[in-house]
Write a structure and sequence with these properties.
Largest interface: A-B, 59 and 75 residues
CATH superfamily of chain A: Thiamin diphosphate (ThDP)-binding fold, Pyr/PP domains
Distance between the termini of chain A: 71 Å
Shape of chain B: globular
Number of domains of chain B: 4
Strand content of chain B: 15-25%
Helix content of chain A: 25-40%
Number of strands of chain B: 25
Radius of gyration of chain B: 27 Å
Distance between the termini of chain B: 49 Å
Structural class of chain B: alpha/beta
Shape of chain A: globular
Strand order of the largest sheet of chain A: 2-1-3-4-8-7-13-9
Largest sheet of chain A: 8 strands, mixed
CATH topology of the largest domain in chain B: Pyruvate-ferredoxin Oxidoreductase, domain 3
Number of helices of chain A: 12
CATH architecture of the largest domain in chain B: 3-Layer(aba) Sandwich
Oligomer: heterodimer
Strand order of the largest sheet of chain B: 11-10-12-13-15-14-23
Chain lengths: ~350, ~625
């Protein structure tokens, strides 16, 4: 396999508003299995960042360990990336974000990385409402170690490596858990549905606070068989959508109009608008109780609820909670951090 | 038994005693005992207080021991001369702990049981609780002011200037002035009772001096927190653990006052109580990766939890600083007792071949200085630095020189490329390319340049250009470069301190951290006995050339430390390849700070055995 991409640029290739080609958002060639759902998610990330006009150095990508956590190498190669340790990406993201609030933080994790070893950090990064997008590439199994069940494998689901025995344990529903913890943005999607995932990613990256997207992303090698609830065919047949989402950047007007009562517009902190239509019954995206009820009802029917599930447009991120200065902490210099003449003398005097 | 004493009984001894207060924790005794120590400090006499406390909030025995030493010996000393025993639980042991001829001050509100009587000490009953109940109504007040009553009595018995104590009370309650009169009242009750009923002063007593000049009395943890602020740390993440918690408290308290934007009141720092130690160090590494000076403070158990991340910092070369306030281990060990038991586990923390720079302070002032130095070195060496304090240094007050900061000092941010550097056309930049031959490479901070300098930080093997690789020779080249970096560090870490201008003999001793107080005293004690020993205080790991030379130059070297295995000795053997035979362990690991008597005893024991064998 070749890892080198051609460097020729056709002059007619379109550039986005900040002057970048779509390929400027790509990464090295993926080493994941052919057909892996994760590669589709990477493609959606490339698309979303291109369309959002993000300058590559204004975004930092972070991950833990696992197949999913390898993907940051496969998109945004001009951005800084950090492949950290298993299940601990949220703490790295927290420190990085506290150091420089001006960057966009995109965290990529898997179901093992988040729902098992990283559950503690996942839960607490939600509590702190860190301003980041957190994607779980959820395939219900541990790919790199050859297909063991993960904690998101559904009860009764059958994987290829299970030897004909179905999962005897209850699954952890990460979207449900995020809602329970009052996450300020919760969505779910399917790696095979780029039309849904791209606007969700753009909305998530525009949200001020913790934005969680659980993306069902089938493992073609270990968990795409009959009997698996995370197989392509099964997921396609068991999706229920909350609503269609149009992402409207802050400088643009809403041009499409929908029938009254069937649509809803939500304005985020940065003035971007989320225009929702074809809304599911009994669901209000800004009401966490209705979001929880909808998620639960869909689950009982054996389906995956996808789309935006909940958003709190009033969200205050960790920097606002901690009341830090406007200038990023990593840019404060000696003069700005010097407590002032006489201060230390006063402190010394207090210890006499 | 002697109810009181006269000067005929005992020789007069001025400014040289150990007094111990035996209390029940959670009863407000800490405040009274702290006032006692501060009064001696304000009297200009060297003293060192040791808080010997349980891992408990209320109801268990706790002791506060103050050594007063005109000669300036600030280590712990064996033998208690005066005991204020107000804890029935520990009373029997407390009475037994007094030296012959010592003075016991006890609460005589109830008759003392005969089993507690000792013929060879002076027993002085003060009806503390009864007096308190007579003068104060609220039960909680009766409990609290009982402490001030015994303080008043000790002030009279030791001839401390009561005005000094009054001033301290006024300062302490400046914001709650209502509390001043009842404290004065309780102080006078105890003071007057002693004056009227006991022979004051005791032959052991205090006399004012002016030996402390402008020195300060401060806990190491407080100084560490301040040092981090002056050193430019703008992010601290931590998880509560004794005895390091007060580092976080100090950082937050002071930063909230001196690290805020005047116009807006907004904070120039982020302070995060993490969900565990793993998250705390993760946040520090995330911040360091982003060019933010950050640190965490913890103790041995926390370092154990941080091990995986420590390896990441080392191998991915991300700056990070850990303050390790050591306590008694292993496992949960003795969480409220002191030890130097994490030297090995910090030096070689994490799996694989890892080594870390340790900075080892021995005074609060050095905590202050080494805190900022740790931040500089973390950036300079793009690695993880340990500041190795301990419970004794961190949580006890120590007399030291005032803290100083040069306002013109620049932070050493290390080799960081900015946007202009990256623009240079001839730049062949690789994140792990050793351009200067010192093993330290140039790094970039996220957000610097739109198309240059971006790279993928990882804990996996990679080549000079940060690309993943499993090629053996590339991996080996990278880890060999880390050895080059390690050798560069040897020349830049703090040099050892010597206590002689020139070596005087064949015997040497090596010590570090809080062991220094007792070791330097032991040195003088041995000199009086005609035993000449050269001394070196190690202040950092890796060992520089001076450390190696000192050990080389002596036939036998005593390594004095506060752990069971002789961990510094092991590091010396392992790193410098000296014969273990010439390195003699002098150890203390009972959780109490080491004493000079103990050191002298162990060294003499070794020397006499050796003489016998010869």
């Amino acid at each position: 396999m070749s890892y080198i991409k051609p460097s020729f640029v056709h002059p007619a290739l379109p550039r986005n508003k900040v002057g970048y080609l779509k390929r400027d958002y790509e990464g090295t060639i993926s080493t994941l299995c052919a057909g892996c759902g994760h590669d589709s998610i990477s493609a959606s990330i490339v698309e979303a960042c291109y369309e959002l006009n993000i300058e590559p150095h204004h975004l930092a990508k972070l991950s833990g360990i696992g197949c999913s956590s390898k993907t940051p190498a496969y998109f945004l190669s001009n951005s800084h990336g950090f492949n950290s340790v298993h299940g601990r990406m949220p703490s790295i993201a927290t420190g990085a974000n506290l150091g420089n609030k001006d960057l966009i933080y995109l965290g990529v994790s898997g179901d093992g990385d988040t729902a098992s070893i990283g559950m503690g950090q996942f839960v607490h990064v939600i509590r702190r409402n860190l301003n980041m997008t957190y994607i779980v590439m959820n395939n219900g199994c541990y790919g790199l170690t050859k297909g063991q069940d993960s904690a998101t494998a559904d009860f009764g689901s059958m994987s290829k490596s299970g030897g004909g025995v179905s999962t005897p344990f209850q699954a952890i529903d990460l979207a449900g858990m995020a809602l329970e913890l009052n996450a300020t943005f919760v969505a779910r999607s399917f790696s095979g549905d780029k039309d849904q995932l791209v606007p969700l990613l753009k909305a998530a990256m525009s949200h001020q606070g913790f934005a969680f997207i659980d993306v069902i992303s089938p493992c073609v090698t270990f968990n795409n068989n009959k009997g698996s609830t995370k197989a392509y065919d099964y997921v396609r047949d068991h999706i229920e959508v909350t609503g269609a989402l149009d992402f409207v950047p802050k400088e643009e007007e809403i041009t499409v109009s929908y029938e009254a009562g069937c649509s809803k517009t939500i304005e985020l902190f940065d003035k971007t608008k989320l225009n929702l239509h074809k809304l599911a019954k009994d669901w209000n995206p800004t009401d966490i109780y209705s979001a929880k009820a909808k998620l639960e009802a869909t689950k009982r029917q054996g389906n995956y609820l996808t789309g935006l599930i909940y958003v709190n447009p009033e969200s205050k991120d960790l920097h606002r909670i901690l009341d830090t200065v406007d200038k990023p902490l990593n840019q404060l210099n000696e003069a700005e951090l010097y407590p002032g003449d006489g201060v230390l003398d006063g402190i010394n005097a207090g210890f006499r | 038994m002697k109810e009181a004493t006269t000067e005929k009984d005992t020789e007069i001894s001025v400014n040289d005693f150990v007094i111990r207060f035996a209390n029940v924790n959670g009863t407000g005794s800490a405040s009274a005992n702290g006032l006692f120590a501060k009064a001696i400090f304000r009297s200009g006499v060297p003293m060192s207080p040791k808080n010997i406390f349980p891992s408990n909030i209320q109801g268990l025995p706790t002791w506060y021991e103050v050594r007063v030493s005109e000669k300036g010996y600030l280590g712990r000393r064996e033998g208690i001369d005066i005991l204020v025993g107000v804890n029935p639980q520990s009373f029997k042991d407390d009475v037994e702990s007094l030296v012959t001829g010592g003075f016991l001050i006890y609460d005589s509100s109830r008759q003392l049981h005969s089993e507690f009587l000792r013929e060879d000490i002076h027993m002085m009953g003060i009806p503390m609780m009864r007096l308190s109940m007579e003068h104060f109504e609220v039960p909680r007040h009766q409990q609290l002011f009982k402490n001030i009553i015994y303080l008043g009595a000790t002030v009279a018995l030791l001839d401390i200037d009561i005005q000094v104590v009054r001033t301290l009370i006024e300062e302490q309650f400046a914001k709650k002035p209502k509390l001043i009169p009842p404290n004065f009242k309780a102080l006078d009750i105890g003071f007057n009772f002693a004056k009227e009923n006991l022979t004051c002063p005791l032959p052991i007593r205090l006399e004012k001096r002016d030996l402390l000049e402008d020195k300060i009395l401060i806990e190491g943890n407080e100084a560490t927190g301040l040092g981090m602020i002056y050193g430019g740390a703008t992010m601290m993440a931590w998880y509560p653990i004794t005895p390091s918690t007060s580092v976080a408290k100090a950082y937050e308290n002071h930063a909230s006052k001196i690290l805020v934007e005047k116009q807006t009141g907004k904070k120039k720092f982020a302070f995060v109580q993490a969900e565990d130690e793993l998250a705390a160090i993760g946040m520090v590494i995330g911040a360091g990766w982003n060019g933010t000076r950050a640190f965490t403070s913890t103790s041995g158990a926390g370092v154990s939890l941080m091990n995986e991340f420590i390896g990441l910092s080392y191998f991915a070369e991300v700056p990070a600083t850990i303050v390790n306030v050591q306590r008694g281990g292993p496992s949960t060990g003795m969480p409220t007792r002191t030890q130097q038991g994490d030297m090995m586990s910090s030096a070689y923390a994490s799996h694989g071949d890892t080594k870390h720079i340790l900075l080892i302070p021995c005074t609060p002032k050095e905590c202050f200085e080494m805190a900022s130095l740790a931040l500089d070195m973390a950036d300079r060496f793009q690695t993880l630095i340990f500041l190795m304090s301990d419970l004794d240094l961190g949580m006890n007050e120590h007399i030291c020189e005032p803290l100083e900061w040069d306002k013109n000092r620049k932070f050493n941010r290390g080799k960081v490329l900015d946007a202009n550097d990256l623009e240079k056309s001839d730049l062949d930049w690789g994140r792990y390319l050793d351009v200067d031959g010192d093993g330290i490479c140039y790094r970039t901070i996220p957000g610097t340049h739109p198309s240059k300098g971006g790279y993928f930080t990882r804990g996996t093997s990679r080549d000079e250009y940060a690309k993943y690789t499993e090629k053996g020779e590339v991996y080996q080249r990278n880890v060999d470069r880390l050895t080059v970096k390690w050798n560069t560090a040897k020349n830049e870490v703090p040099k050892p301190e010597f206590y002689q201008n020139k070596n005087k003999g064949e015997l040497g001793m090596v010590f570090y951290g809080t062991t220094t107080y007792a070791a330097t005293e032991a040195m003088e004690m041995m000199e009086e006995k005609g035993i000449i020993i050269d001394s070196m205080r190690v202040r950092a790991f890796p060992f520089g050339q001076e450390v190696e030379q000192f050990i080389e130059d002596h036939k036998e070297v005593f390594i004095i430390e506060q752990n069971k295995e002789g961990q510094m000795r092991t590091l010396i053997i392992n790193e410098l390849e000296f014969s273990p035979k010439k390195l003699i362990k002098v150890l203390n690991y009972n959780g109490y700070p080491i004493t000079a008597d103990h050191i002298v005893e162990k060294i003499e024991e070794h020397l006499s055995i050796r003489d016998l064998l010869n």
